[in-house]
Amino acid sequence: MSQLSTRHLLGIKNLTEEDVNLILDTAENFKEVINRPIKKVPSLRDITIANIFFENSTRTRLSFELAEKRLSADVVNFSSSNSSVKKGETLVDTVNNILSMKVDMVVMRHSSPGAPHFLSKNISANIVNAGDGTHEHPTQALLDAFSMREKLGDLQGKKIAIIGDILHSRVALSNIFCLQKLGAEVMVCGPITLLPKHIESLGVKVELDVRKALAWCDVANVLRIQLERQQIKYFPSLREYSLYYGINKKMLQQLDKEIVVMHPGPINRGVELSSDVADSKQAIILQQVENGVAVRMAVLYLLAGVRS
């Protein structure tokens, strides 16, 4: 079996192109598994995985838990809101206490960028980053790439526009790294206040006009406005944002081609996307959710193969 070049999935940046393709190819096999009448395989029967979430999550947490159970792993769920973290316990102490119960792998979401990297240097278990602050969200980028590949075939030379709140999004950065490794061209589009300074240095195109971005791209990956991460106002109102950057059916009908619409969820309906776009046949948002389970199964399975 081909192996990943790393013991951890901390981000897309430190994966090779071969790693990305191996994960996506393995996910194809697991997608077949989860569409069978019996959806379980015994691949991780002797592995214990702890899901440690220091931030709220619905989709990612459920998706990981389902992936783990489909692989027959033993699963431990931890939420910081009702734990000793509230009493001042450090991250390393919290995780070491969990590991002393003989946990093999840790899936972690944390509000601090770099938290999984820090942890990987201090504990022996494999670590999967389920989102660290505004830094990276590698499994989301992998499932997005898997969904695009399923729809379009090879991504070499395909044009992908990432539209919305780029500044606060960990999905945007992971998507940029992942898509570039697969040979796609990437454009970011949003209000100038929601674009990071020097974003061009990542080798992406920058567009402020959403209509031009839609006319350029094969796929529009639309991101949520992350109000919970915004300490100041970056635009006058949601209504104004929707007016200038919201995507509706009429805009898509004016294009001379049919593009694919994606969204990592949760959607602010009527802000980033109108309901008639979110529910249209051009949108593959629910397919992304389904593919998320297969991709996370692939990641966990492959990491279990490089345990030391």
Automatic annotation (TrEMBL):
<dbReference type="InterPro" id="IPR006132">
    <property type="entry name" value="Asp/Orn_carbamoyltranf_P-bd"/>
</dbReference>
<feature type="binding site">
    <location>
        <position position="59"/>
    </location>
    <ligand>
        <name>carbamoyl phosphate</name>
    </ligand>
</feature>
<keyword id="KW-0665">Pyrimidine biosynthesis</keyword>
<feature type="binding site">
    <location>
        <position position="109"/>
    </location>
    <ligand>
        <name>carbamoyl phosphate</name>
    </ligand>
</feature>
<feature type="binding site">
    <location>
        <position position="266"/>
    </location>
    <ligand>
        <name>carbamoyl phosphate</name>
    </ligand>
</feature>
<dbReference type="Pfam" id="PF00185">
    <property type="entry name" value="OTCace"/>
</dbReference>
<dbReference type="GO" id="GO:0006520">
    <property type="term" value="P:amino acid metabolic process"/>
</dbReference>
<protein>
    <recommendedName>
        <fullName>Aspartate carbamoyltransferase</fullName>
        <ecNumber>2.1.3.2</ecNumber>
    </recommendedName>
</protein>
<feature type="binding site">
    <location>
        <position position="224"/>
    </location>
    <ligand>
        <name>L-aspartate</name>
    </ligand>
</feature>
<dbReference type="InterPro" id="IPR006131">
    <property type="entry name" value="Asp_carbamoyltransf_Asp/Orn-bd"/>
</dbReference>
<feature type="domain" description="Aspartate/ornithine carbamoyltransferase Asp/Orn-binding">
    <location>
        <begin position="156"/>
        <end position="303"/>
    </location>
</feature>
<feature type="binding site">
    <location>
        <position position="170"/>
    </location>
    <ligand>
        <name>L-aspartate</name>
    </ligand>
</feature>
<dbReference type="Pfam" id="PF02729">
    <property type="entry name" value="OTCace_N"/>
</dbReference>
<dbReference type="InterPro" id="IPR006130">
    <property type="entry name" value="Asp/Orn_carbamoylTrfase"/>
</dbReference>
<comment type="similarity">
    <text>Belongs to the aspartate/ornithine carbamoyltransferase superfamily. ATCase family.</text>
</comment>
<feature type="binding site">
    <location>
        <position position="140"/>
    </location>
    <ligand>
        <name>carbamoyl phosphate</name>
    </ligand>
</feature>
<comment type="subunit">
    <text>Heterododecamer (2C3:3R2) of six catalytic PyrB chains organized as two trimers (C3), and six regulatory PyrI chains organized as three dimers (R2).</text>
</comment>
<dbReference type="GO" id="GO:0006207">
    <property type="term" value="P:'de novo' pyrimidine nucleobase biosynthetic process"/>
</dbReference>
<feature type="domain" description="Aspartate/ornithine carbamoyltransferase carbamoyl-P binding">
    <location>
        <begin position="7"/>
        <end position="150"/>
    </location>
</feature>
<feature type="binding site">
    <location>
        <position position="265"/>
    </location>
    <ligand>
        <name>carbamoyl phosphate</name>
    </ligand>
</feature>
<dbReference type="GO" id="GO:0016597">
    <property type="term" value="F:amino acid binding"/>
</dbReference>
<comment type="function">
    <text>Catalyzes the condensation of carbamoyl phosphate and aspartate to form carbamoyl aspartate and inorganic phosphate, the committed step in the de novo pyrimidine nucleotide biosynthesis pathway.</text>
</comment>
<feature type="binding site">
    <location>
        <position position="60"/>
    </location>
    <ligand>
        <name>carbamoyl phosphate</name>
    </ligand>
</feature>
<keyword id="KW-0808">Transferase</keyword>
<dbReference type="InterPro" id="IPR036901">
    <property type="entry name" value="Asp/Orn_carbamoylTrfase_sf"/>
</dbReference>
<dbReference type="GO" id="GO:0044205">
    <property type="term" value="P:'de novo' UMP biosynthetic process"/>
</dbReference>
<feature type="binding site">
    <location>
        <position position="137"/>
    </location>
    <ligand>
        <name>carbamoyl phosphate</name>
    </ligand>
</feature>
<feature type="binding site">
    <location>
        <position position="87"/>
    </location>
    <ligand>
        <name>L-aspartate</name>
    </ligand>
</feature>
<comment type="pathway">
    <text>Pyrimidine metabolism; UMP biosynthesis via de novo pathway; (S)-dihydroorotate from bicarbonate: step 2/3.</text>
</comment>
<dbReference type="GO" id="GO:0004070">
    <property type="term" value="F:aspartate carbamoyltransferase activity"/>
</dbReference>
<dbReference type="InterPro" id="IPR002082">
    <property type="entry name" value="Asp_carbamoyltransf"/>
</dbReference>
